[in-house]
Specification:
Bound molecules: protoporphyrin IX containing FE
Order of helices and strands: HHHHHHH
Distance between the termini: 36 Å
Structural class: mainly alpha
Largest sheet: none
Helix content: 55-70%
Strand content: under 5%
Number of helices: 7
Length: about 120
């Protein structure tokens, strides 16, 4: 399985479930909750979901609506420390655990999440 095969393997529903599980944990999290306070959580959920669908071989709706991803630039306004990165990954790990996609798909997504979340760190 390659990165670009993920969408055909897990479909819209696979991404929907994963990202819904992820965001369900955000508001009450003591590190991530404050970053999102007062923001449009449903919109944030949709943006992450659509981005991942695009990134892993599905329709490019994210790019049509938002343009080039430029993820590091888009995260610059938010203080992302090492601890925030660790917490983001922990919530994503439990979301992955809740889904029943094939183990190989989980592995590919996890490898991507680990390196990309690290790249988002922008504060010490
Ligand atoms: C694999 C790692 C990550 C990916 C793929 C990712 C992806 C995204 C995407 C696509 C957006 C929407 C950008 C836009 O169109 O405006 C976004 C927004 C955001 N991300 Fe991340 N992100 C990652 C890691 C993190 C981490 C580690 C944090 C902080 C702990 C974080 C916090 C936020 C916040 C606060 C927003 C603004 C919410 C909003 O869209 O309104 N992200 N992220």
């Amino acid at each position: 399985m390659e990165e670009q095969d993920i969408y055909s393997v897990i479909g819209e529903g696979g991404f929907e479930n994963l990202i819904a599980y992820f965001y369900r944990q955000v508001p009450d999290d003591e590190i991530l909750g404050p970053l999102y306070r007062g923001r449009d959580l449903a919109g944030a959920e949709q943006r992450l979901r659509e981005f991942l669908i695009f990134r892993f071989g599905g329709p490019a709706r994210y790019v049509e609506h938002r343009g080039h991803p430029r993820l590091r630039m888009r995260h610059a306004p938010f203080p992302i420390t090492h601890a925030a990165r660790d917490r983001w990954l922990r919530l994503m790990a439990s979301a992955l655990q809740e889904t029943n996609m094939p183990a190989e798909a989980k592995q590919i997504l996890w490898t991507y999440f680990e390196s990309t979340a690290t790249a988002m760190i922008n504060r010490t």
